[in-house]
Write a structure and sequence with these properties.
about 35% helix, ten-stranded mixed β-sheet, single chain, about 400 residues, alpha/beta, Enolase-like, domain 1, 15 strands, globular, TIM Barrel
Length: about 400
């Protein structure tokens, strides 16, 4: 069997936020790739791999995926952090890629084989006005997307009050717009009333709160949106306030999708086993890779919860491929978030997943089915665009931070 010979990190995308792990073996030409991307801390994850995770793996059997995951999980004593999880995930995906290549099978075949022909995805529609939003949703309907997310402008859109209209203290910390819970509660139900009036109840629609609301207002929003029959309401609460989902369940039937920021089983296991959410949205790399996420999918099946692995614009085609293989082989699959990549970005990853309308298709290549062109990956990286990245700093009128 092949042994791990070398672990390399390849940083790419123009702003350097994609981090691809390449695990090479002692068998000529046999290697695997995985995703360890982190939009905000790519350099930190790279250091974690190179200085902590990779050195202890040299010489180990590449086929011992479970043992490598379990021993890496406890290798730093403290665990369930986003950095170590992402580092382990990059290795884990690469090892599954290698195992598939050794077996001559796609990863989803190793996981039990497909239980669907393609992976349904949801689109991201938006608009700065209600008419713009209706037009964008209609465009995705015509393209054949089965589910469409609807946002009024940026995250928190509908809840921002212009600086000159917001009631701010005289020593206001910012001159920007202020996020206001009550404005959000007023405008988002109106948004869905308008969409249903124009489009009817045929389209399956979702909305991402992005954890902007205070918990009691989050419960109110879920209840207010019940008449509009959403496919799901995404990230209604921050991870620090998930206990409020019990109250949401008591108040309404609006389906809940949660988990974009989850890295810890103590966060998602209670929500699944108590049936407090309907879709779990852990990012495969942040959950620790294919090995733990296939267990999450199995747990979901037992408790009637579905998966909606988190993707989004900051993710990469390798993590997307890992999610796709889990989707194909998991009975508990619900929906997959879409990604948008430029042609230049896709050229780096020959064999990448194919997105046609609202469905994503795998090829029949062994492993994850895609490769990386390191020369093109290096050329895409722009040194002048490297540097610290931070999440948007939205604030309320009094200056307090809104947790994303």
């Amino acid at each position: 069997m092949a042994k791990i010979k070398e672990v390399r990190c390849i940083r790419t995308r123009a702003d350097g936020t994609w981090l691809i792990v390449k695990v090479l073996t002692d068998q000529p030409g046999l290697y695997g790739i995985g995703s360890a991307s982190d939009h905000y801390q790519a350099g930190v994850v790279k250091a974690a791999i190179e200085e902590h995770v990779a050195p202890r793996l040299i010489g180990r059997e590449a086929s011992h995926i479970e043992d490598i995951w379990q021993s890496s999980y406890t290798s730093g004593y403290w665990r369930n952090g986003s950095i170590l999880n992402t580092a382990i995930a990059g290795i884990d995906m690469a090892l599954w890629d290698i195992k598939g290549k050794e077996a001559g099978m796609p990863v989803h075949q190793l996981l039990g084989g497909p239980c669907r022909s393609a992976v349904a995805c949801y689109a991201h529609a938006g608009g700065n006005t209600l008419d713009e939003l209706v037009e964008d949703v209609q465009r995705y309907i015509e393209e054949g997307w089965p589910v469409i997310r609807c946002q009024f402008g940026p995250y928190g859109g509908g809840g921002f009050i212009p600086h000159e209209q917001a009631v701010k203290p005289r020593n206001a910390w910012t001159q920007g717009p202020a996020f206001d819970d009550e404005a959000y509660l007023e405008n988002i139900p109106k948004m869905f009333a308008h969409l249903r009036d124009k489009l009817g109840f045929g389209p399956k629609l979702t909305h991402d709160v992005h954890e902007h609301l205070k918990p009691h207002n989050a419960v109110t929003l879920a209840k207010l949106l019940e008449p509009y029959r959403l496919y799901f309401l995404e990230d209604l609460l921050s991870p620090e306030q998930v206990q409020w989902y019990r109250l949401v369940r008591q108040q309404c039937t609006t389906p809940q999708a949660m988990g974009e920021l989850f890295v810890n089983p103590h966060e998602y296991v209670p929500l699944i086993t108590e049936r407090l959410i309907d879709y779990v949205r852990v990012r495969v790399s942040k959950g620790g890779g294919i090995t733990p996420c296939r267990k999450i999918a199995a747990l979901c099946e037992i408790f009637g919860v579905q998966t909606a692995w988190q993707e989004g614009g900051d993710n990469d085609p390798v993590n997307q491929a890992a999610a796709m293989h889990l989707d194909l082989a998991s009975y508990s699959f619900g929906i997959q978030e879409e990604n948008h990549f430029s042609p230049e970005e896709l050229e780096i990853f020959p064999g990448h997943a194919e997105q046609v309308g609202g469905y994503m298709y795998a090829n029949d290549q062994p492993g994850l089915g895609l490769d990386i062109d390191e020369e093109k990956a290096n050329k895409l990286l722009k040194a002048e665009r490297l540097g610290p990245k931070y999440m948007a700093e939205d604030r309320r009128a009094d200056g307090s931070v809104v947790r994303p």
